[in-house]
Design goal:
Mean pLDDT: 73
Protein name: Peptidase S1 domain-containing protein
GO molecular function, one term: serine-type endopeptidase activity
Strand order of the largest sheet: 1-2-3-6-5-4
CATH architecture of one domain: Beta Barrel
Distance between the termini: 137 Å
CATH class of one domain: Mainly Beta
Largest sheet: 6 strands, antiparallel, barrel
Order of helices and strands: HHHHEEEEEEEEEHEEEEHH
Number of helices: 7
Main location: secreted
CATH topology of one domain: Thrombin, subunit H
Radius of gyration: 34 Å
Strand content: 15-25%
Helix content: 10-25%
Oligomer: single chain
Low-confidence stretches: 18-22, 32-55, 67-107, 134-151
Keywords: Disulfide bond, Hydrolase, Protease, Secreted, Serine protease, Signal, Zymogen
CATH superfamily of one domain: Trypsin-like serine proteases
Subcellular location: Secreted
Length: about 400
């Protein structure tokens, strides 16, 4: 009995061994660097043509898998974004320092100790607002070139909204401007006539045009006289600058005060700030809330290469204009921002928390909002003589 049991066990073991060896052996693992399914030419960089990436009908599953991997890699390289221009330095984020001034930049001299009339008048306005604070007054006339982004209510006391009176006696604010003296606002010349309407009112120092914001004490004044630049042509985008004389002087406060004009042709930094109450994107409604953005200054020769040819600019972008663009988020000035300021925000040397504003340009035109094209601004320093002759004519007569 025992012998028969052992014989049965032996036969079962032998049959299992024969059965196992009758099965085909498992396939070997794929090599770490499999050979290409075609002969590789070392003189050609892979991939060369897209059709070499597609397997034939007789290819194995392993070869088809490697084809799919190469196809994926090809698509990844094909869809890589265009590299940023090497001269385009992205704007700093809030709290980060500004990039240093361009190499070779030197702050212009003080012209034998004399300052322009617009600079002298700005100092007078600041002294009247802060009569006992010499540090603020000194900082207003001596600013660093590594400012920071301000983001708090009432930060732009020179900001003006240019209003038009409708047939229903309502005021619609369609443009921006900047207070530059007690009774003058500078804006774009094309803002002096919109749909056969001329501006009648200026609202200064406000945050929200839809409500009465008493915390910032905005002031609304009537426009007395409009001065368009004598060389302005409504069919062109050149000399797009105008002065609005107010019917009375503003009351200078910390919420309403003029901006200082930048009197040099050179700029100490490639970062500038634009703002307004307009739309934030093409074909959108105006926000009616004061918003600002930082832009990178684009050299004029580069701007001319990037902008399309327009009948309104037969000579391209001129030296009397400035280009600016946001290379990161494509933010832009838009409808309702025309005439508003393009400015430098520079901290004081003595008190870094005191930011001082220098007007370098006026929002003039662009291809369309939030496009990949730069926007163009009227350069303030090109029109200083004309501005001073109109704004401070009485003081000039005494010189």
């Amino acid at each position: 009995m025992c012998r028969s049991v052992w014989m049965l066990l032996a036969l079962a073991l032998l049959s299992s061994i024969v059965c196992c060896y009758a099965q085909p052996p498992p396939p070997p693992p794929p090599p770490r660097h499999p050979s290409l399914p075609f002969e590789k030419d070392s003189s050609i960089r892979f991939p060369v043509e897209r059709d070499i990436l597609f397997p034939g009908p007789d290819e194995s599953e392993e070869e088809k898998t490697w084809y799919r991997i190469r196809e994926f890699r090809f698509n990844q390289y094909e869809n890589l974004p265009e590299p940023m221009h090497r001269h385009h330095r992205p704007p700093p984020r809030p709290g980060q320092p500004f990039p240093p001034p361009p190499s070779g930049y030197k702050k212009p001299g003080n012209r034998n100790g004399r300052r322009r009339l617009c600079e002298q008048k700005y100092s007078e306005y600041v002294e009247r607002i802060f009569p006992n604070d010499t540090a603020v007054v000194d900082d207003a006339n001596d600013a660093n070139f590594d400012g920071r982004i301000l983001a708090k209510p009432g930060q732009y006391p020179h900001m003006a909204a240019v209003g038009f009176e409708t047939e229903t006696q309502q005021i619609e604010y369609k443009c921006g401007g900047s207070l530059i003296s007690e009774n003058f606002v500078v804006t774009a010349a094309h803002c002096t006539a919109i749909s056969d309407l001329i501006p009648k009112w200026v609202r200064i120092g406000d945050l929200n045009l839809m409500i009465d914001e008493q915390t910032v004490e905005p002031q609304v004044l009537e426009i007395d006289t409009i001065y368009k630049h004598p060389d302005y042509n409504k069919d062109l985008y050149y000399n797009d600058i105008a002065l609005l004389k107010l019917s009375q002087n503003v009351h200078l406060t910390k919420y309403v005060r003029p901006i200082r004009l930048w009197v040099f042709s050179e700029l100490p930094t490639t970062i500038a700030f634009a703002m307004g109450y307009g739309a934030t994107s093409f074909a959108k409604a105006m926000t009616n809330r004061l918003t600002n953005l930082n832009l990178t200054i684009v050299p004029n020769d580069e701007c001319n290469r990037e902008l399309p040819a327009l009948s309104e600019t037969p000579d391209g972008v001129l030296a009397s204009q400035i280009c600016g663009q946001d290379y990161i988020l494509n933010r832009d000035t838009c409808q309702g921002d025309s005439g508003g300021p393009l400015q430098l925000n520079l901290p004081g040397r003595r008190r870094q928390q005191n930011i001082h504003y220098h007007l370098i340009g006026l929002t003039s035109y662009g291809v369309f909002c939030r496009s990949s094209y730069p926007s163009v601004y009227t350069r303030i320093s090109s029109y200083l003589d004309w501005i001073e002759q109109i704004t401070w004519s009485a003081e000039l007569d005494l010189v």
